[in-house]
Amino acid sequence: MVDEPQSAADYLQATRGVGFDELLAADRPDATACPLPRQADSVKTARDVTRSTLRDWGLSEFSDDAALVVSELVTNAVRYALCPSGTAEAAPITLMLLRLSPQVLLAVADPSDTPPAPKKPDFTSENGRGLYIVETYSRRWGWDHLDRGGKAVWAIFGGTS
């Protein structure tokens, strides 16, 4: 058992024998994947999918924190993730939730290979606090490259610290 995974992909490989690429393409009872257009209203859709999925799994206790974190991750993907060609084409992003009892892993995949860059939060600014919020409300967070290109930024909720 991996106590503190170096990456979510390592954790998934060690515990489930599957990585993000397979999860994004699979139809599994312990996972939900939702493609999202790269537009602002995708943030609300992602929150709604997160809340309803956690409710269906009997994990509503994570709903508020997970919805807040998924809002930040999807906002970042919509705002900053450029397609590999460097253009802002309408390549989709994907929200994924995975039940890893007693934990939940949520991830937002986008076509950009550029890793997320945490900034020192400026609490008087209207932006720049997203990854600080992700770190504050999740048990652990990080990002992994996808075999198909792009990355998945993930956060884990629940379990023991």
Automatic annotation (TrEMBL):
GO MF annotation, one: ATP binding
CDD domains, per database record: HATPase_RsbW-like
InterPro entries for this protein: Anti-sigma-factor_SerPK (IPR050267), HATPase_C_sf (IPR036890), HATPase_dom (IPR003594)
Keyword vocabulary terms for this entry: ATP-binding, Kinase, Nucleotide-binding, Serine/threonine-protein kinase, Transferase
ATP-binding recorded as keyword: yes
Keyword Transferase among record annotations: yes
Residue ranges constituting the Histidine kinase/HSP90-like ATPase domain according to the UniProt record: 37-156
Gene3D superfamilies in the cross-refs: Histidine kinase-like ATPase, C-terminal domain
Identification of the protein by name: ATP-binding protein
Originating species: Planomonospora alba
